[in-house]
Design goal:
Radius of gyration: 23 Å
Number of strands: 5
Order of helices and strands: EHHEHHHHHHEHHEEHHHHH
Structural class: mainly alpha
Distance between the termini: 74 Å
Strand content: under 5%
Helix content: 55-70%
Shape: globular
Low-confidence stretches: 206-214
Oligomer: single chain
Strand order of the largest sheet: 3-5-4
Length: 339
Amino acid sequence: LRINDVSASVLAKDEEGKDNAKKINAFLESIPPNTAILLTSRERNNLDGERIVRLDGLSETEGRDLFIELARNHFPKGKEPSQEIKKALEEISKKAGGHPLSIELLARSYRGQGLPKIGEMLKHMGVGIINPKEESERLQSLESCFEYSFSRLPQIQRDLLHKLTLFNSPFPAAAIEKIFGFEDSFEILLDLYDHSLLRRIEFDEYAIGDGEGVDTSYPLYYFHPAIKNYLERKLKGKANGEELQDEYGDQFSLYYHELLRETYNAIGTKNHVLSLERFNSIWQGKDNDFDRAIRLAKDRRLASHISSYLGLVLYTVGRYIPALEYHNKALKIHQELND
């Protein structure tokens, strides 16, 4: 049995993306008889027998243990790291999404400075760190790792990736066309997903498929945390983030107002469960995109309507305390407007 990586041994460095399927088939035809071969690739090549295997990141404890193993020489000999340090390392693993390269770069840059140093790591998550001992230039830093993938994308996909940093929560494919004006947004997101640059939340039997009649309005897309960290720090930055909000804030708020109205109207219909599953996936954590839609709405009446719909949806599903908070927020905005 031979195991080969497509990009490393089948395609020339400057040939990726050019008739990949034909080159791979030619390679397979050249294999000697009685030889089995397993080809791996980060990208789909649409070949017969191709199978997608999704790889999860390390768990929080696995990421913590990897960090400790790689940085063992910089912890006190014969002693386990303190519980405070272990907890901080688990937070690093969680924030990195279990991304092994991010954790490795951070671990190899650790020189035993304790919690203060680990606290600094939580701020940059490996962006800007280089491991010169790594032979493969592609794996020496997060920048080189992700740039390897980004540089092979069409310009329209690179442009969209930058804009997608506007989202804090998982987002529907329809949001891309409504907010940014991108046509064929569903196909573009699928391409980014196939390149492992986006993740996707699918809802049971309604997941995306090739058959006709499949409802594609419910699956949500989101960044792997390591890629989001990289994009926000190297491609976006605070100033660019504010520019995105200024340019697209109104469309962003309008879209989430319509999404909430659609969700509320779906309650009690055949789409009841799907709509609420999608709502719950978006309405998570601090500064989720429903809350941001309220904040970014320049038209405060629109902000009030978004808050009211949030209250109605939450009340309907029995979350009475946050529902009351959103209704009070809507009332406060109305009072400010003397409406």
